[in-house]
Amino acid sequence: QVQLVESGGGLVQPGGSLTLSCAASININAVWLMAWYRQGAGKQRELVATITRTGSQSYADSVKGRFTISRDDTKNTVFLQMNSLEPEDTAAYLCKAQPGGLPSSYDYWGQGTQVTVSS
């Protein structure tokens, strides 16, 4: 069974930084894309950042210039470096492994890690 385990969340003050990790039980180089999503209380799930097998990255407009997604294939781990955090970034952050070129029911999801930005 595929497992994705997120870690690194917590409480941080506005302007602070956190780095999230997503450890996968699979060879992440075998899937097309790894992604971070987030879901705030009462809000829809939002795509935050993606990184493909070839290393191409994309970001939501709301996090461009502040967040950086990266991967370490030797450790089957994906990271999300978050800087200049804002209260609006408060959410549960979830990792996804997408085997194919498009999202589908075959995608794998982690349980999430909570990030709270508050003074």
What would you say this structure looks like, in words?
By secondary structure, the protein is mostly beta strands. Helices cover 0% and strands 49% of the residues. The protein has no helices and 11 strands. Strands 2, 4, 5, 6, 9, 10 and 11 form a 7-stranded mixed sheet that branches. Strands 1-3-8-7 form a 4-stranded antiparallel sheet, with no helix packed on it. Strand 4 and strand 5 form a beta hairpin. It is globular, with a radius of gyration of 13 Å. The model has no long low-confidence stretch (mean pLDDT 96).
Please give a handful of descriptors for the protein shown.
seven-stranded mixed β-sheet; mainly beta; single chain; 119 residues; four-stranded antiparallel β-sheet; globular
Topology:
Elements: E1 4-7, E2 10-12, E3 18-24, E4 33-39, E5 46-52, E6 57-59, E7 67-72, E8 77-82, E9 91-98, E10 108-109, E11 113-117
Parallel strand pairs: 2-11
Antiparallel strand pairs: 1-3, 3-8, 4-5, 4-9, 5-6, 7-8, 9-10, 9-11
